[in-house]
Inverse folding.
């Protein structure tokens, strides 16, 4: 992708995550042309990349739309992510060095500090960093690639910021316990906890998304 297309792509990702563009909303090329002052080529290049990643959908003879979210998607993807991320945690536990443990502790501290000052964009970044420490520490490249792809899925990314605003008080103690189990190298226990944490969040996340989407669609 060209640097300009990558910039437009990142702008669109941020705009969708922040709610500027809603699920099911059509993205109008001419409006983006005016906003960016560029040719159609980088905009279409950005569209193609985001269609491939699942953020947008292209409808023939109609246009490009922000992909809608369905409960079926969530129920299919969350359990897969839960089991694979739990598996990564189990593999990582005996492999983690002091540096990895320090990184986990640092990410958790940043999560707590960000939550205390209501900075949930920073919290979201630190939360992701916490998980990526043990995912990478699994040392299984195939697993790392699959789990990263699932974690970057738009079902999660699009509302992760708002979700963390709602859920951080429940999540922080769980992440503290995950860190403790890694320190103790309890592979089976940490695998189980990571798995249960994600599966348990699924129903709450479905309810949360339903309320957000219904609210958005009721707005003029």
């Amino acid at each position: 992708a060209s640097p300009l297309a990558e910039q437009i792509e990142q702008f669109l990702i941020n705009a969708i995550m922040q709610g500027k563009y809603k699920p099911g909303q059509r993205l109008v090329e001419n409006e983006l042309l005016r906003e960016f002052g560029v040719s159609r080529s980088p905009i279409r290049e950005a569209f193609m990349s985001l269609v491939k990643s699942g953020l947008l959908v292209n409808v023939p003879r109609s246009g490009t739309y922000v992909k809608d979210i369905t409960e079926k998607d969530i129920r299919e993807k969350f359990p897969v992510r839960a089991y694979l991320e739990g598996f990564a945690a189990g593999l990582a536990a005996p492999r983690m060095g002091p540096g990895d443990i320090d990184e986990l502790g640092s990410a958790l501290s940043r999560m707590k500090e960000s939550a205390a000052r209501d900075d949930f964009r920073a919290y979201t970044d630190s939360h992701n960093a916490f998980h990526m420490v043990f995912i990478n520490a699994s040392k299984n490249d195939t697993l790392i690639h699959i789990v990263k792809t699932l974690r970057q899925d738009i079902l999660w990314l699009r509302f992760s910021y708002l979700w963390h605003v709602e859920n951080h008080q429940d999540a922080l103690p769980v992440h503290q316990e995950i860190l403790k189990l890694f320190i103790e190298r309890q592979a089976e226990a940490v695998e189980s906890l990571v798995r249960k944490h994600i599966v348990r969040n699924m129903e709450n996340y479905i309810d949360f998304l339903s309320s957000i989407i219904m609210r958005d669609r009721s707005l003029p």
Notes: The CA atoms of residues 159 and 209 lie 8 Å apart. The two ends are 36 Å apart (CA to CA).
